[in-house]
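Weekly puzzle thread! Below is a chain. First person to post its structure in token form gets bragging rights.
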Amino acid sequence: MPKKRTVRKDNLLKKLIEDEKDAEKKAQEKKKRKQEFQQERRDDLVKKLEELAKTMEQNPGQVADKSGDVDMRGPNKAKKGGVIKKIGKDKTKARANRTLLKVAKERGIIHDEELAKRLLSGKKIKNTCKPDGGELKRDKLLRKAREKRERRTGVVREEEEDEDDGASE
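Winning reply:
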């Protein structure tokens, strides 16, 4: 008969391994749900933008803003708008041109152009700092190089001059 402490230790290790597997499975399910939701949002946005592009194509020389004013463009400046499918390996990605996003924002289809661009491209937001609140390595290197350059040349950037003026007043 094995000793009680070894059995207890074995049981604890088994439980830890099971918990780890459960957590991994749960994380995978969460990631899958998130990807499905993102894809659904992306599809809805593409559908709305394509509908908007079709309405803009019907009268390409005229784009009305909120006040109802129409911007008349010449025939050579009228371009085909809409969602541009990217040529590449990943065929799922699409991007919209700037004018289409502006018109969509004016009509209330989207709230923010940058968020819509990021949703269409599928890119993540880059972190501005480390999880512990520290400065990123690349940002630190750039800051150090800028400070060194400023010490050598004696030229201070406008942003820093404004901060210095505000502090002395």
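Puzzle host: Confirmed. Bonus trivia for everyone else. The two ends are 83 Å apart (CA to CA).
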